[in-house]
Amino acid sequence: MASEINGLLPKDIQDLVLKSKIFVVGAGGVGCELLKNLVLTGFKDIHIIDLDTIEVSNLNRQFLFRREHVGRPKSHVAKDSALKFNSNVNITAYHDSITEAKYDVNFYKQYSFVMNALDNRIARSHVNRMCLAADIPLIESGSSGTLGHVTVHKKGVTECFDCTQRPHQKTFPGCTIRNTPSDPIHCIVWSKHLFNQLFGLADADEDVSPDSADPEAISSAGKAALETESEQPISRVSTRQWAQGCEYDPQKLFHKFFNDDINYLLSMDNLWKKRKPPTPLDWNSLPDAVASSSSSASRRAPILLKDQRVWPIAECAEVFKKSVEILKKRLEDEKDGGVLIWDKDDDVAMDFITACSNIRSFIFGIYPKSRFDIKSMAGNIIPAIASTNAIVGGFIVMTAFKVLKEDWYKCNSVYIQNRVNVRKELYHFDQVMAPNPKCYVCGEKPEIVLKIDLERMTVRMLNEKVLKKELCMIAPDVEIEDGCGTILISSEEGETDDIGDKLVKEFKIVNGTRLRCDDFLQNYNLVINIVIMSEEEAKDRDKSVECFELVGDRSLLVPKEEDQATNGKESDKDPDAKEAEAVADDDDDLEVIAMPEDDVKVLGTKRPLERKDEGEGTPLKKRKLAEEPSPASGSAYCMDTEVETIDLD
Ligand SMILES: Nc1ncnc2c1ncn2[C@@H]1O[C@H](COP(=O)(O)OP(=O)(O)OP(=O)(O)O)[C@@H](O)[C@H]1O
Ligand SMILES: [Zn+2]
Questions:
Q1: What are the residues whose beta carbon lies below 5 Å from ligand 2 (ion)?
Q2: What is the pLDDT of residues 254-313, one digit of tens each?
Q3: Fewer CB within 10 A of the end CB, N or C, for the chain?
Q4: Does the structure's ipTM exceed the value 0.85?
Q5: Measured from the CB, is residue 123 less than 6 Å from ligand 1?
Q6: Please, which residues have CB within 8 angstroms of residue 165's CB and are 6 or more apart in sequence?
Q7: 189 and 149 in one domain?
Q8: pLDDT averaged over the chain?
Q9: Are residues 219 and 312 in the same domain?
Q10: Boundaries of each THIF-type NAD/FAD binding fold domain copy (predicted)?
Q11: Which of 120, 24, 118 is nearest to 78 (CA)?
Q12: Is 141 in the pocket of ligand 1 (CB under 6 A)?
């Protein structure tokens, strides 16, 4: 293997490779490629963690896994398969989540550096914080379709993973989902919400019934609907309770969601002045056609597989009936009031979503979709491409050499794009950036501004949605800076459960209140400055949208003059690179992946890393593209990087 053969690697790198101990987080698409590269490079002590087991759908690209491995832990099988490439390596495999408390700061300290090969923001952000706490370099990576990235993060030297705010998931206004869908994705999202309301973790923000507070509906005509609302029996009980009350009778469910509720929507006649009104369906006289008989998919129907053809409405109703019956039984079998978790790979759950979304599409005159298409939209499936993973895995190892040598200023960010840019490059190399002093994670005194709707924000929402989901904490403790140290949230199980449903305003939280948050596991402290939404703002806000907004540090919104004058600006960045950067946010739970046009927001301005004069440690100059021209390529920046990448001397 490379490190065992003298002369293959430069001597200094060979020595560093032989003596380093490294940690790979994730043994999926990128993780498999990476592990194979690492053993072939001759790293001797490799640890790898993954929480998952192997699924059939992994086999087309996660080539360390074979059919006989399905169901076994990814990390264990990855280890066994990689050892076949080079048995002269120590691999330690953990079948576990990296967010478990036992992987603490001391655990991280044993490594020379850490490599992320993950697929979600929470785990990425967690590892970022652990590496900052342990002061261990992190190589972050990701791939999504043809896009990929590799970036380096080193405490106090480069920006951290959270220094740049990444685009968030694309969401749809609640009234579009509940009242006026116009695209298949609206019906798919509604169906996922319906699944959760009936069988899963019901979320008040995912209501599926008509929204009579829709500003568009509120007019003299819409008032009729508002008035009849009180007569709607189901408005007083939750959708779950109502469904339980009628024993999940599929016909009754069908009638409510696809007839009663639609008639109710029709009564909000303001909504239909400029739109085609929906058509309620009757279980006993279902049309025989597919939602749009002119669709090319339906014309091809006879020769297609079940997954590829678009089901006629009568078939959708039949599938709806069967899937409701099975899901009802599964829910009954759950112990201790457990609920079902929606999973794109669960056939019955997918049948339910396909049937519901196509029935709803029919009602609203939206073109239908095949089960295959709906699965990819509902599960945010972006085809994983083996070659992108391979390229990312390769770049990680090339980057690892620079990390081992602590050549931070050479650790450019790499973005793999899906088309060549103006300079005819498929790979975009971006300057390594110094930490953002205002970063809410690695800044000296991390602070953030949180705007909340006092009438809606409960303690539980603050914990689950803001701290854990948005701010990626794992086990937060929160104290109000009110002079008495009132504990609002405790990481100790059960300690603050009883106040979870209380509104935060009951704890005298007002404009300017400061909340001290502390995640002991991540060694992370954050002060949240509360800003209250004005009544006007809260009133205008779509009720199905979250009742909070993370504003960041307000002072960050206005860059300092000095920053503007001297530093690289985000707007200079190649748009393709921004698209690739969005890959980092390809969370499992996204509804729709960040689109290329979504801008990457930056907290403050970016600061290119200053190059240090080797040996003396004094800053040489700001490393700027224009200062290092390359006659050969006309792109000093990338040429420079290529040379650095290929020529290891
Ligand atoms: N908290 C975590 N701890 C350990 N491993 C994790 C954690 N979160 C995600 N992973 C692992 O990261 C890997 C990411 O790989 P990849 O993106 O190829 O996903 P996948 O689940 O294998 O594929 P797909 O999502 O396309 O089915 C997965 O194997 C996943 O189990
Ligand atoms: Zn940071």
A1: 160, 162-163, 439, 441-442
A2: 999 999 999 999 999 889 988 999 999 999 988 876 554 444 444 454 566 778 788 999
A3: C
A4: yes
A5: yes
A6: 552, 600, 601, 602, 603
A7: no
A8: 82
A9: yes
A10: 9-430
A11: 24
A12: no
